[in-house]
Protein: 7-carboxy-7-deazaguanine synthase
Amino acid sequence: MPLILATTTPGEPEIFASLQGEGASMGRPSTFVRLSRCNLACQWCDTAYTWRFEGDNRPHSDDVAFERKANQLTLEEADVAARVAALHPDRLVLTGGEPLLQGPALARLVTELDALRPGMHVEVETNGSVAPHAALDPMIHQFNVSPKLAHSGNPADLALIPQRLAAWSADPRAFFKFVIAAPEDLQEVLALQQTYAIPGERIFLMPEGRSSEVVRQRSAWLADLCLDNALRFTDRLHIHLWGDTRGT
Structure:
């Protein structure tokens, strides 16, 4: 089955080169492939066009339903690999939506890409609730895991799956990125850190926000929380540089 991708404009897949804006690889030139579809529904999601299609009533703060045909397309793995290989960065970031829903197809993509551009560093951005497919897992150099806290609007039994959190904590390739909207969100993070023995050096706190103004405002107090709890801070670099836009 081919890959199901998001679009930048109707008919154009969201495959682009940019600087990684968040987490452990922030600032690194990377090529992004944005997959469509997600098993969760964050009410502040900044890529709702990957999942909230017409007829989907899952809640979102914007309450916008996207037309599927204009915002989703399919491409063969070889086509996607060729497009990635043609761009300059030597790092690939598979993002979404939830990319691990398409594990077998992603394994075929990385195999195709390795024949064209051997040795590329491959990262996956995931909400942490889906296990990597057995064929894909050994191909990934880094997992950027963003478990969804209560303020996301997702039920904990869907978003915070104990066996998955334990597995990510035990995997040194996995860095955790928690979206923080208010200071009280920190207590959830600390409880998860303790329960699953997640090393603080692999936990990033990131301000929730789709504008540079909001991100900066929340960064002011979030930086202090990181300092006080020996956790890492991550900005949203792409929001400051290009705003909340596709293909950046």
